[in-house]
Amino acid sequence: MVGGPYYSGNTIEIAANFQIARFVQLVAKPLPNIDILLDHSIATKQYESTELAHPYILFLLATMYNRPEIMQYIATHRLQTCLHRAIALAVLKNKAVAQQRELVAICNEQQSTGWWKNEPLAENWPGSQIATTALIVGILAAQQQKRANKSFSALLRQHQAVAQKTKQLFDSRTEPLRSLALATVNKVCQADKGFEITLLAYFFGQALKSSAHLTNKQYTLLGAASVCGWVAYTIYDDFLDEEGTPVQLPIANIAMRSSLDCFRSALSEDNNFQRYVAHIFTEMDEANAWEVHNCRFTVQTDTIIIIQLPKYGKCTVLATRSFAHALGPMAVLAHHTQSTAKKIRYIEAAFRHYLIARQLSDDIYDWPDDIQAGSASYVVTMILRDMRLQPGTYTLSILLTAMRKQFRHTTMIRTCELALNHVRAARRSFAKYELLQTSNSIYTFLDDLELSLHYSLDQHTKACALVKT
Amino acid sequence: MANNLLEHTLTQAFAALHAVSEDEIQQLSLIDCTLTLSVLPDNNALTGLRSRLAGRLWHQLNPRWIHGGDLGEVFLY
What DSSP string runs through A51-106? Predict the structure, then answer.
């Protein structure tokens, strides 16, 4: 009959009609006649019959019909095999404990080869190990995605709380400073897609094996301190590069004081930490002064004067000038009962390696702009050193062409490898005293950075191969 | 703990599925192949397997097979 229900020989098989209904639902509109048949079979609980109570049919039912009686049946019956458990996991809603139980049971049943044992999927369908594993993997991956979405929503709320707190700090200021400051804070927070500015302290707190016992309010204050520090130094950097806008300077000053206030409020009784914060900011200013003094070339239209190249040594200055970024996590560590001076030193060293790797990774892309602005960044310096360039006056456009060639030839690979070494050193230092969980957001930042460096190297290799052909 | 367990389990499973050989794909029944393709998550590690499964279906589901094939291979009853 057109539009169903469909016959198998002389009988109407519910299982076959379920599958046809699913197919038609996927490629066109549902078929009303089949829906009536299936409604009836659900109402009369035919899915409990032997031939229908198989994993695949139950999976189809659960996917197609969000009916409480089916969900209840799947949740309370037939949990004896992995596939049934997986299907129960897919339909259980708002039952975290039961979901967790099913999840752990399914994971524990996985063989060391990565497969699950083959299970029959329906009455006349023996199935295969590949199909069984695929069905379980599909359900587990959906669970993982749900968890990730839930976790992202929680992080977004936390991020918004930090942005709100920071804006409150400027809200009572008079115009035009108030509007300009709020716009700057908004810009910083909106650009912080990975929450690395607003939530680094929170991520670090979550990464610790044992809780640091900081309140949400403290994490919010540490986030606001970080945003304020970021706002202040972004504006100061513009001035150091002789690109500053005078109207922004008062914002930087207030942001700087607010950052210190937030650190004070977050850990009000820890005078040692407050001294540490002051010391870090002083070191940042020293590093900036060193950079302005040593890392600037004179550029006039298409002419550049190079007198001396800066000596970056082991790149420590790259970490020093941005270490305020890691002050949030260091505050969490200062509050952590299991911290010792030695452990704190290792975590600090780990963040320094991470910051160096990040700076090198940025410099790889920014160096043409840097040299044109007269800035001797690490990568600019390395290219010129690789070229064995003598002090003198050069035509910038000609020098740039030669620098691009040198960069492709040697500096690009060397800088990526150096950055990767710092990523590895960061990982070793973080892991040294086993303060952190084996999998955590801080390691994810390292993984992302490492991946992007490998990607750059890979693209570079392919580009070189293309040029050779 | 559970997040790590789930992540580890999926990594192991992705590795096993990624290593499925062309012979194993050819030996899958049509319905196993279809189900596997329809339920596999959209994950980079499984892109190769998904495209090989799609290739296997594309080769089999030609007009000749559609006219003369056995519906029992597609719908279970």
Answer: TT-SHHHHHHHHHH---HHHHHHHHHS--SSHHHHHHHHHH--S-HHHHHHHHHHH
Closest residue by Cα to residue A222 from A96, A335, A327? A327
Q: What tokens were used for A76? A: 């309370």
- Domain locations along chain A: 14-127, 295-469
Å between A45 CA and nearest CA of chain B = 18
Whether residue A85 contacts residue A102, with contact meaning beta carbons closer than 8 Å, is answered with yes
User: What percent of chain A lies above the pLDDT cut of 90?
Assistant: 58
Binding-site residues on chain A for chain B (CB distance < 8 A) = 8, 13, 15-16, 19-20, 56, 100, 103-104, 106-107, 110, 113-115, 121-125, 127-128, 130-131, 133-145, 147, 438-439
Regions of chain A short of the pLDDT cut 70: 1, 47-52, 77-79, 94, 467-469
- pTM of this prediction? 0.70
pLDDT at B4 over 80: no
For residues A6 and B66, the answer to whether their CB atoms sit within 8 Å is no
Continuous H helices in A211-270: 216-240, 249-266
The pLDDT tens digits for A220-261 are 999 999 999 999 999 999 999 888 999 999 999 999 999 999
